[in-house]
Amino acid sequence: MSAQILKSIASRRTIYALKPELPTELSIKNVQATVQSIIKDVPTAFNSQGNRAVILTGATHKAVWDSVANAIDSPAGKKRPESVRDEAAGSVIFFTDDKVTEGLQENFPAFASAFPDFANHSSGAAQIDSWTALEASGLGAHLQHYNGYVKAALGSKIPENWTVQAQLCFGTPAAPAGEKTYIENPVDILE
């Protein structure tokens, strides 16, 4: 079992070249079920379950990414949001619920300063697990961080107390990932 998990982790790669469609055997409901399961099961500090996610597709996906591109002044800075708008089938938007974090800070003051970091760690786990699972389902994806722009574009569609953490942009791969090189980075055992 661990060999399959490790293979999935190694296969998860940044793929920017996407087609704005899902593979024929996959539906947006499959994507939703996968992300929902991960949001439910990824560990959180004190089992606080502060991760949130929404999936953008269709006209909403295009409108949000168009808004992001239009909010950026630099032509070079617009390129990635425009490619997401035009080439991705959808985006998973990851959030943390600030009310959950604030509640933990109030209830466990000894750890108050650490809870924002804990929320970020848990969100990161949900992002990577979702990316790996969607890749294993036949999707290509890349992770973006246009957080403030995306929050502004979503406006009242999401609660004010949700902080945008990342965007996982997905679609059918149009080209494979580039070559990956590795550094020497041994894991030592200390006894």
TrEMBL record:
<keyword id="KW-0539">Nucleus</keyword>
<dbReference type="GO" id="GO:0016491">
    <property type="term" value="F:oxidoreductase activity"/>
</dbReference>
<dbReference type="InterPro" id="IPR033877">
    <property type="entry name" value="Frm2/Hbn1"/>
</dbReference>
<dbReference type="Pfam" id="PF00881">
    <property type="entry name" value="Nitroreductase"/>
</dbReference>
<dbReference type="InterPro" id="IPR029479">
    <property type="entry name" value="Nitroreductase"/>
</dbReference>
<dbReference type="GO" id="GO:0005737">
    <property type="term" value="C:cytoplasm"/>
</dbReference>
<feature type="domain" description="Nitroreductase">
    <location>
        <begin position="9"/>
        <end position="171"/>
    </location>
</feature>
<keyword id="KW-0560">Oxidoreductase</keyword>
<dbReference type="InterPro" id="IPR000415">
    <property type="entry name" value="Nitroreductase-like"/>
</dbReference>
<dbReference type="GO" id="GO:0005634">
    <property type="term" value="C:nucleus"/>
</dbReference>
<dbReference type="GO" id="GO:0034599">
    <property type="term" value="P:cellular response to oxidative stress"/>
</dbReference>
<protein>
    <recommendedName>
        <fullName>Nitroreductase domain-containing protein</fullName>
    </recommendedName>
</protein>
<comment type="similarity">
    <text>Belongs to the nitroreductase family.</text>
</comment>
<keyword id="KW-0963">Cytoplasm</keyword>
